Every structure is written in C-alpha cells, then in structure tokens.
Amino acid sequence: xxxxxxxxxxxxxxxxxxxxxxxxxxxxxxxxxxxxxxxxxxxxxxxxxxxxxxxxxxxxxxxxxxxxxxxxxxxxxxxxxxxxxxxxxxxxxxxxxxxxxxxxxxxxxxxxxxxxxxxxxxxxxxxxxxxxxxxxxxxxxxxxxxxxxxxxxxxxxxxxxxxxxxxxxxxxxxxxxxxxxxxxxxxxxxxxxxxxxxxxxxxxxxxxxxxxxxxxxxxxxxxxxxxxxxxxxxxxxxxxxxxxxxxxxxxxxxxxxxxxxxxxxxxxxxxxxxxxxxxxxxxxxxxxxxxxxxxxxxxxxxxxxxxxxxxxxxxxxxxxxxxxxxxxxxxxxxxxxxxxxxxxxxxxxxxxxxxxxxxx
Length: 360
Known about the structure:
Layout: E1 11-14, E2 27-29, E3 32-35, E4 38-45, E5 48-56, E6 62-65, H1 66-72, E7 81-83, E8 86-88, E9 92-97, H2 100-106, E10 112-115, E11 123-127, E12 132-136, E13 147-149, E14 157-162, E15 165-171, E16 179-180, E17 189-201, E18 204-213, E19 216-219, E20 222-225, E21 228-232, E22 241-242, H3 244-247, E23 251-255, E24 260-264, E25 276-278, E26 281-283, E27 290-295, H4 300-304, E28 311-315, E29 318-319, E30 337-344, E31 347-354, E32 356-359
Parallel strand pairs: 5-10, 6-9, 15-22, 16-21
Antiparallel strand pairs: 1-9, 2-12, 3-4, 4-5, 4-7, 6-10, 7-8, 11-12, 11-23, 13-24, 14-15, 14-19, 16-22, 17-18, 18-21, 19-20, 23-24, 25-32, 26-27, 27-28, 28-29, 28-30, 30-31
C-alpha cells in the first residue's frame, strides 16, 4: 500500500462528470513494463504524457508527482486518465506529492501511482507469471477455484486464518514484501521478530522487523507453511497486507463491482518459505546516494564494518544513479558476496559484505 497515511499533503478530490472508464475492446493488454515485480504503466492525463506510474491494488487513491501536476495545471484539472486504449473519466480521487524517494528506491523515474478504484468498472488482471497487465469486461463467477470475496472497502481485502484467529489482509501489488502482519503479539513464532532493514512507501521510510510464524496460515485459497512475516515498526503504521513475494506466483483478477477476486495458479500447493537473506542494514534513498541509517547486530554489514552515516554510492561496481530497474525480481535464498562502494569521511571505500540469513 503506497499511501496508507500521507501527512503534510494537500488533498484534492476530483469529482468528474462522466460515469466511468471507456474501453476500446473487451480484452486489452495495457502498456506496462516490469520493475522487479512492480507493474509500471504508461499513463496519460488529459491526453498529455504518457508518464510512468506504478499500478497499485493497495492504493485507495491515485497520486501524481508534483512534476506532472504542474504540467497539467493541478490535480483539480484532471479530466481523464488513460493507459493505452483504456480510459477512466470518473470517480478519480487525486493527490499530488514528490515521487523522488520512491524513484530513487526503485532505480527508475516514477511519476505517480494509479489507485485501485480507477479500474472499478472493469476486470483488472495482474498476470505475474506472464508479466502482463490486462483489463476486460464481464464478471467473475460467484464461486469456484481461487475465487474469494474482497470485502466492502475500496481496496481488496481477503480472509486470513492463523490458528483460531481470523482477520482480513490487504492484497497489495505495490508492496515488495511478502506478508506484513499487524498485532504481532497474537501469533506464535518459530523464529522471533528481529530487525531486517527498511522499506520505502509513498509516505516515507519505515524500519522493519521480520520473523517466521509457527504452523500454518490460510490466506484466501492459499495455504502458507511457517511463513516469514514482516512488521512495520514506525509509530502509527498498522494493518496486514500481502505483497509481491507471495503474489508473484499467481494471476490475480479483480472484480470490484462484485467485490471478489480470483487467484489462478498452484492454489492447491502449500507455499514453502526459504530463509530470508540480507546484509542487515537500512538505507534512506536520496538523489546522490543512500545514507546508512541503521546497521543491525550480528549481520554481515556489521561484520564488514559498515557504519551509520556512511553513504552508499554503488553496488557491485554500478553507481546507484546509473542503475536500471531490474525486469525480474531476485530473492536470494543462499549467502551472496556483495561489494558496496561507500563514501566515508570524504573518501570512497569498497566493502565486501556476505549476506546472512536474517530469518532462518
């Protein structure tokens, strides 16, 4: 969810006159590229553009960069939003804010986030295995394999069961994590929560911890065996969500009018979770480098001598501002040696860091 709470932001709600999206055909493949497991669409506003924007099922509203908002004369001037032949002309709720931090984190320029309600009149499909985003007409069936209700909210929530506990979790294609659970004291852990890094959302930098649950978890039609879960620990962050590290194995279709969705893929096969590897440090993405804001005890980063205040300039010889967004996500399941070039006391230093299992 790219913008759960947005502070110091001026909200403008654009109430448009026409009824809903206009489709050029019943089945459209939208012009998108993949940045890791993020779907980046080419979006036009009022016929201007297109600009690259993240399509995010976890976003209740659409966000434009300050840059794009300035070009079109402000978000209250939005009349239409188009992605290829798909056009939405109604029920658009628009914010504007800086996209710099998100762009630095992803390694490519992002000019906005397309919220889930933009597609409320159509079937929207995130085809992770096919690396494709589609819209179509019609309705999902009331029941069948992989069909689950998504609740009454603007965003899709599905039923979760852990032991005797039951709650709803957000299906969030804008989260690069797997599972994030709130109210973490309710659950039994095989591996306790421990610091692992930080995550970037539209509303800032969040330090995080992760652990491994004991036993089985039911997520809609899916069964998860001893899943690794993440926790946002910044004050005020709450809620449970399901992100890309789980969703990437499935084709997801959302039917917002009927408040249901479909998982297509190996829904009968329990999901297993490999150990979670990382260097054990947190960075704050900036334009000219990523300052180190935390180094965790017992990590590969600590063993290699990385320090808070160091500024990350390059990874494996590639400058951060010259890197391309990866088309495919890479989740390490074994130790890796990574060379980080940092700036310390005005001098560049290379550190070789061996990743460790932060959550076995």
